Structure formats: structure tokens, C-alpha cells
Amino acid sequence: MVDVKLPYWLGGIAIVLAGTAFVRDPYIASVANLIAIGALTAVSLRFVMLMGELNFATAAFVGIGAYTTGATLTILNWPFLLALLAGGVMAGLVSILFGYITLRTKGPYFLLIGFAFTEAVRILYSKSIALGGTSGMVGIFPPMILDGWMPTFIVAVAALLILGLYALERSDFGKILTAIRDNENVARTVGLNILLVKIACFATASAAAGMAGSLHAFANNVISPGDFSFLVAAFALAYVKVGGEGSIIGPLLGTALLVVLGSYALGLGGGEHIFYGAAIVLAVLLLPHGVTGLVSGKRPQAGGGH
């Protein structure tokens, strides 16, 4: 049964959502888009961490979502909403096959396979003439009815998907995931089909990551293979670790902090990456349980030893 109590952080999302409706500054709108899409990606990565795995294939599924949306919209001329949803559906379907093959492995092996898969998919995009090759795809525009409202739409869609993952985490399915993380052998003795549960978790998270990719495509109107390197997963992990993995508010807070910090660091010229990387390292060293852990004093729940 799902815990129907609404989380307090929904109030913050509602405020942000209302605020984006009045934003006309392109810079602020772009930051809002980055936070919403980054938060959804980070929450999807954390969802897999609930069962004790670190999913570096997240970047690949973000890319699959983006390229599926781009192709269905610009090549197949699908309607906006169908093209948007197609990204999540395709990412989910591909992840079922990928998960069936790889989820029998654990720990660093699963992580390395995800890394290799991400790079293989990225190279595939760059070699595909139909998908624009190294130049990528252009002309991925939302309908005119959303002109000026796209940041609000992106934040709203991301918030709904994050709320859906939160509901699943609080449901019996979420309890099963944490039971598998805590002791897979015990979970198996009570009759759970471990592989099936893992695939369901992985596919759900990957579909959400695919939707993040779809939103990315519409937010930027252009995509290229370089947008979907392993750094997408690395940044998502940083958002989770800096914010704290003990609750879903961690990735949300971590994303907001690091995106704003990263935007500020752009003004530092060549030193921006050093500044950004140093901020992440210091946060992880000084706040091992993240910002939310500092506030609550609780140890992280998700991801176990990651």
C-alpha cells in the first residue's frame, strides 16, 4: 500500500512551478530547466540505488530518451506529446533487455557495464547519419502554444515524475527494494523473484531518465552525442551525494545547489571546472551524509555502501 501523505518538499516545488510561470529572463529559465532535468535524472539514479546498485547506464537512457524524441518529432513528424512520451517508453523498453542481461552482476561489474554501454550508445549516435552524426539533431521545437511556458511545463513534468518515484519508494515495492539491498539471500528465501524485481526497478528508473532526456531535447532544441557522455551519470551521482541519499529531498537539494554553483562558476573562465569539482569534493568530505544529513542527523538509507 502506498503512503498517501504528501511530502513537505512538494510545497517548494509548487512555489518554483508558480515562479516559472512569470519568468521571462532566458538565463533564469535555462537554470530552472537544468535544475528540473538534473533533479529528475538524479532521482532516477537514486531509485536504482534503493536496491543497492549504482547505475552508470543512466546517461545512456537519458540519451536514448532524447534521441527517440528528436527522431520521432523531426523525422517521423509525431505530435509533441507522443514524441515526448516516446523517449521514456523507448528508454524503458531498452532497459528491460539491458537489465535482463546485466542485473545478474553486482557492484563494480554492473557499474562498469553501464559505463561501457553509455559510451557504446554515444558512439552509435555519432556514427549514425540518420541521427545527425557528430553534429547531432536540430529543430526539436515544442508547439507554439508553449511559447514562453516551456520552463513551467518542464518543471511540472519533472515534478510529476519525481512524485511518482517517491510514491513507489514509499509503497510495498519500495520496501521490497530495500529488503533486496539489505540482504538479497534472505529476500530470495521468502519467495521473491529477485531478477524480476530488479528489472522492474531498473526499467522504471530508466524510463524516468528517458523522460529527462526528452525534456532536455525540447529545452535545448538541439542534441548531440557529447550531451550524453558518462558525465551525465557522474553529475547525477554528485547531486545525490551532495544533497544526501537518505531521502528523495537530497537529490533535489543537491541539484539546485550544484546547478546554481555551476552557473556562477561559468564566470570564472578556465577555472570553472576546478571550482566546481572542488566544491563537490569538499561537500562529500565535510558532509558525508549530504546537506540533508547535516540537518536531520540521520545516516543515508539508499544505496548502502555506495
TrEMBL record:
Keyword set includes Mitochondrion: no
Membrane topology category: Multi-pass membrane protein
Q: Which domain of life is it from?
A: Bacteria
Q: Where are the transmembrane segments?
A: 7-23, 29-49, 56-76, 82-103, 149-168, 189-212, 218-240, 247-267, 273-295
Q: Does the keyword Transmembrane helix apply?
A: yes
List localization entries: Cell membrane
UniProt keyword terms in alphabetical order: Cell membrane, Membrane, Transmembrane, Transmembrane helix
The name this protein goes by in its record: Branched-chain amino acid ABC transporter permease
